[in-house]
Amino acid sequence: MYINGKWIDSESGKTREIINPYNQEIIATAAEGNEKDTKDAIQAARQTFDEGSWSTLPANERGEFVYQIGQLIRRDSQELAELETLDTGKTIQESRDDMADIANVFLYFGGLADKNGGEIVKSPFPDSESKVVREPVGVCGQITPWNYPLLQAAWKIAPALAAGNTIVVKPSEITPLTTVKVFQLIEEAGIPKGVANLVLGAGVSTGAELSANHHVDLISFTGGMETGKTIMQAASHNVKKIALELGGKNPNIVFADADFETAVDQALNAVFFHAGQVCSAGARLLVEESIHDEFVEALIERTKRIKLGNGFDESTQSGPLISAEHLAKVEQYVEIGEKEGATLAVGGKRPNDSELQNGFFYLPTIFTNCTNDMRIVQEEVFGPVLTVETFQSKEEAVKLANDTIYGLAGAVWTQDLNKADFIATRLRMGTVWINDFHPYFAQAPWGGYKQSGIGRELGQQGMEEYTEVKHIYRNK
Ligand code: NAD
C-alpha cells in the first residue's frame, strides 16, 4: 500500500493471494489492509489537502503532473497490459487497448486542469460584482471493481488530481496489480506525498471505512448496485458527495434495415467481449421480428466459433470469468433462464476442452424466446449470456428497451437515421450508440440514468464531479 508517500504493509501483517483466473496459479501476494490502514491513508490525504499546497498549486502545474503520469503509462503500457491480463484473464489485445485508453485519460485531464477559469455573473445589484469559481471538493475516496481494474481507477484518479483534490484509492481486492504499478508511476511523476494514497483490502473493511469516514468529502464508487446502496447509506452519515457507476442490462436494438453482417458481429462483440463482464455489455438483444430467424441462426453459428483460451495467446477471443464464485453465479442464472422457459439456443455450460479445466471458463450462451418479465432479461448476469426478444415497431422497441431498472447504455442498428434518432432521443440511458457498440473515450461523459448510477465520469462533466461551485459576491 502507498500511504503518505511510503510503501507499507498492513499494520495487521495480513496478506492476500492474488490468483490468475486462467489457471488458478498464485501470481502475487498483496497486503490486506484494514480499517486502521484506511484511517491512516485518509489522515494523510486530509492533512495534505488542508495544508493546501496541492489544491492551490497553479492548475497548469497540477495538469503537468497528471499529464506526466499519462506519459509514464504509455512508456510502460506493455508491462501494464501483461499484468492486467495475468490478473483478470482478459485477452492481451483488450489489455493493450485498455492501456492506450488509460494513458489518454490522464493526458486529457492533465490538459483540462487549467481550462476552467470560472465565470462572471451579472449581479442585479448596482455597483457589485459576482463571479462563480470551481474549487476541489477535498479528500476523495475512490473504490473500483475487478472487471476493468486500471481503467476504472484512471477515470477517477486523473480528474480528481487535476481538479486539486487529494485521494485514497481502494481497488478490488481480487485485481490490485495494475493499480499498484500505477502508484509507482505516480511516485515517479513526483506527485507530492499525501496527495495520492493507495489502500488494498476487502470492501467490508477498507471500502466501508472510506465510505463512512467523516474526513472523506466525496466517495466515488464503481461496482455492483447492492454495494452502491450500502456505500450510499454509509456516505449519508456526513453527507458526503457521492458518484456511483453501477450495473447495466443494456439493450441492443437491431432493425431489419441494418447492415446484417456488421450487426450480427457486433451483437456478439457487444455481449461476449471480456466474457460479458462489462457494465455496458449488450446483454439484451431486441431484433425486428421480420429478420429474427435469420439473425439468430447467424448468431448461433458464429458463437460456436468463439475461441476461449489463455489471454496471452493472440488467437484467443475470450478469456475466463474472474472467479469461482462468479462462475457459479453465471451458472445459476442459466438455470433460472431455463426454468423460466427461455430456449437455450447455444452454450449453457462449461467447455469440455481439457486445457481450460483449471480456469473459470463458461461457454458463450444465447437464450431465445425471452420475454421482458424474465429474471434472465431483467437482472445483470455480468457474464457471457445473451437474451433475444423481438419487436414489430420502433415504439415497441423503445418500450421494451426502457423497461428496466437500469439506464447505462444502449445501441440501435439501422440505416434510417431518422429512426436511429427516434430511438436515441427516447432511450433513458447515459450513452446511446448508433450503428456501433462499446465506444467510449476520455472526451465524452460516461454514466447511468436510473439505478445505473449517480453522476458522470470522463469528459468535462467527469472533472466537474470533483469540484465544488462557489459564488463570490463583492459590493464595490
Ligand atoms: P462489487 O460491488 O462487488 O465491488 C466493487 C468494489 O467495492 C470492490 O473494490 C469491493 O472491494 C468494494 N466493496 C465491496 N463491499 C463494499 C462495502 N461494503 N463498502 C465499500 N466498498 C465495498 O463489484 P464487482 O463485483 O467488483 O464489479 C462488478 C460490478 O461493477 C457489476 O455490477 C458492474 O456492472 C459494475 N461496473 C459498473 C461500471 C460502470 O461504469 N457503471 C463499470 C464497471 C463495473
UniProtKB/TrEMBL annotation:
Domain spans labelled Aldehyde dehydrogenase: 7-472
Pathway recorded for this protein: Amine and polyamine biosynthesis; betaine biosynthesis via choline pathway; betaine from betaine aldehyde: step 1/1
Protein origin, superkingdom: Bacteria
Molecular functions per Gene Ontology: betaine-aldehyde dehydrogenase (NAD+) activity
Keywords annotated in UniProt: NAD, Oxidoreductase
Active site: E245
Pfam family, one: Aldedh
EC identifiers of the protein: 1.2.1.8
Signal peptide: none
NCBIfam families to which the protein is assigned, alphabetical: BADH (TIGR01804)
Family: Belongs to the aldehyde dehydrogenase family.
PANTHER family: BETAINE ALDEHYDE DEHYDROGENASE (PTHR43860), BETAINE ALDEHYDE DEHYDROGENASE-RELATED (PTHR43860:SF2)
Name of this chain's protein: Betaine-aldehyde dehydrogenase
